[in-house]
Structures are given as C-alpha cells and as structure tokens.
C-alpha cells in the first residue's frame, strides 16, 4: 500500500520543472523518506469501514493528497522560519532559496486541488480545504502570540489544534468516510486523530528540554528565541517561582537576541519549575483519552496497529 501511495504522490505532483530551482525543491521533498504517519493513519482508520478493500486504490490516492498537503506545509514552514536547518539538515529554503520554495509549496497545493476535482472527490476536497484553512489560522494565531508574555495555554492549544492536529484529524476522517464507516465511527476517529496530533506537538515541544532533542537534530530552543512559547514554558509559568524566573528573560527576548547563558537559564528554570514533567503528564492524559476511543471501536488488527502507534508516541 505504501508503494501505491508513493506512486500517487509522484503522479499528482508531476511537473515540467526539471533543471529549475522549483524542480529541485520538488525532487527533494518528493523523494524524501518521511515517516508517512498521516497516510498510514488514513489507511488504518479506513479498515473500520465495510469498503476498505474495495476502495483501496482510491484510499491510497487520498493518502497521497494528505501527505502532499503536509509536504507543502513543511516547505512553507521553512520559508516562514527563515531557518538554515530543519531537524539538523539544510532547510528547503536554505538550499534552494525562498522563491523556489514558495513556488513549489503553492504548486503542490494546486495539484492536490486539481486532482480532487479530476477524480470527483468533492466531499474530500471540502474537508481538506477546510483543514488547510485551519492550518493557516493556527499559524496566524501563533504569529499573533509571538513574544506575548501573557499567552495562555488555551491560546496555545487553539493554535496547535489548527496548525498540527487538524491534518492528523482529517487523515483519520477521510479514511473512515471513504471506506463507508458510520457517522459515529467517523466522529470518533476524527477526534482520535486530533488527540494524536496534539500529542505529536507536545512531544515536539519537549525535544528542546530532553536529551533526545539533540539526537533528533532539532535546533535548540529556536521556538523560544522566536517568541513562540510552547507548553513546557507555559506550564512552568503557571508556578509563581517559574513566572518570577522566566518573565524577565521573556521580556528581554522581545527586545534582543538572548545570550547562550540566558537560554540555558531559561531551560533550567523550565525544568526546575515542572514544565517538562507537566507536559509529559498532558501527553499521558491525551493518550488516555485516545485509548478510550480505541476501546469503544471494533478490535480489528488495524486497531491494534493504531494502538502501537499511540504507545510509541506516548513513550518519552
């Protein structure tokens, strides 16, 4: 099935840009060996429907569209971040320039839309279009909150539900709908996907504060330097001692580039005031909610695979 998804990824993204910067960007992202988490979720959730086998090829096409949407969002993230590296490797815009990256990201979104109409996937097109809207709203909300020392956990959650969790949720929803699941099952799987996406973002937030961060190639504390205050920071701020220690650093962060010593002090205070510990607790809490949904569904082999995916994401 994964081979069929990759076939559709390349088919949908066919282009005549060989020898151009945009073509180089597309070759780079289309040939990358990503984890394919969202396409896998789509196919696994489709197994709860009566027509999963009958619609296998169409489901692979939808899975490719979801992955291409994810790829386009990563390209645009690189442009916004203006970072030379992503996960320890040269970023797309760092390697090929902003213009080529913008064109490539826009082209992928356009091709997904074209194929949705071409294949008469109208309902799926509406759902995925609303998801892209939610992703944009989440990114805009995050930008509005930059350097805000009074940003709340609720605002942070609203933003990550859009920019990260919405595509997880949609992958589960599209797989369930296309395979003929009942409305109750579709609703449950959509909610499950959102929980999984939230956990995914929480885990990503933790990488700056755990030893695994360096191993996964994440640029240390770039979010904080950019005024994006993630859950470990926000949880530490809920403690009076944490606010006293962190607010002066955050106020300076809005004025100038922080020194390595200030960043180190921030990290130590986030850990000391329970930011990491309480973020891990939130991951476990959302994992429990996700398991409740799985427990209410049929215990098919695919459900057990989803459970293993959840277990892996929960392990810190």
Task: Write a short abstract of this structure.
With 316 residues, this protein is mostly helical.
Q: What's the arrangement of secondary structure elements?
A:
Blueprint: H1 2-12, H2 21-30, H3 37-46, H4 56-81, E1 85-86, E2 89-90, H5 92-96, H6 98-118, H7 122-144, H8 153-178, H9 183-206, H10 212-215, H11 222-225, H12 231-237, H13 240-253, H14 260-272, H15 275-295, H16 301-314
Antiparallel strand pairs: 1-2
Helix pairs in contact: 1-4, 2-6, 3-4, 3-8, 4-6, 4-8, 7-8, 8-9, 9-15, 12-14, 12-15, 13-14, 15-16
Notes on the structure:
It contains 16 helices and 2 strands. It is mostly helical. The chain has a two-stranded antiparallel sheet with strand order 1-2. Helix 4 runs antiparallel to helix 6, helix 8 crosses helix 9 and helix 13 runs antiparallel to helix 14. It is globular, with a radius of gyration of 20 Å.
- Helix-strand sequence: HHHHEEHHHHHHHHHHHH
Oligomer: single chain
**How many strands, which pairing sense, and closed or not: the largest β-sheet?**
2 strands, antiparallel
Main sheet: which strands, in order across? 1-2
Structural class: mainly alpha
For the termini, the CA-CA separation is: 29 Å
Strand count: 2
Helix content: over 70%
Q: Mean pLDDT across all residues, rounded?
A: 93
